[in-house]
Write a structure and sequence with these properties.
The protein has a domain of about 100 residues: Trna Endonuclease, Chain: A, domain 1, CATH 3.40.1350. It has about 190 residues and is of the alpha+beta class. The protein is built from 6 helices and 6 strands; from the N terminus they run H-H-H-H-E-E-E-H-E-H-E-E. It is about 35% helix and about 15% strand.
């Protein structure tokens, strides 16, 4: 789709005149079926709609399933790489008014808020409506947050990195991310 909503141009190999959305004015200018009948004419029947699928488009169910599994595996590898990088990186964790790690609850999970740099923390402070306040924070290794701090909370907890930004990332309380004792299963029960 183009910026103005049309589907024309030379995008995705489609050339020719841009399609434009049907407007009410177009409908008002077209003769109605009743007007055609009273004038002695009948509207032409709509053409039959047939969709043919080539063998290359059809694929088999097994190919589709294999493609979905390959995509899921690629996403798992990408997440594992991001998780490894987070575990090796020192992040900034703001402190709340009580001197505890800043956290928020969403969907029954307590999320420790961590930030990749001071600029990301400043954007968060601004979004909180408190940019003028001096924000105290601690620098903590990602692995320490996941392996030590999350289990200490005693409730399902994870880490939200750069919360509220386009590049934000969640490290949820699941096996492989947090210690098994702090992980929850798919049914939401803490182990």
């Amino acid at each position: 789709m183009g910026e103005n909503g049309d589907r024309g141009g030379d995008q995705d190999g489609i050339t020719g005149e841009p399609e434009r959305p049907l407007r009410l004015a177009d409908l008002a200018a077209a003769p109605s079926k009743a007007a055609l009948r009273s004038a002695g004419g009948q509207p032409p029947p709509p053409p039959p709609v047939q969709r043919t699928v080539s063998k290359s488009e059809a694929g088999t169910e097994a190919e589709t399933e294999a493609g979905a599994e390959a995509e899921a595996e690629a996403r798992r590898r990408e997440f594992a790489a991001l998780l490894g990088e987070f575990r090796r990186t020192a992040v900034l964790v703001p402190l709340d008014a009580h001197g505890s790690l800043w956290s928020a609850e969403q969907g029954g999970v307590r999320w420790i808020c961590a930030f990749s740099d001071e600029a990301a923390l400043a954007r968060f402070a601004y979004a909180q409506g408190d940019p003028g306040r001096e924000w105290e924070y601690r620098t903590v290794l990602g692995a320490r947050l996941l392996d030590v701090m999350v289990p200490m909370l005693g409730v399902p907890a994870g880490v939200a990195l750069d919360a509220g930004s386009e590049d934000g990332m969640l490290f949820p309380p699941v096996a492989g991310v947090v210690p098994d004792a702090a992980a929850v299963d798919l049914g939401g029960e803490q182990r």
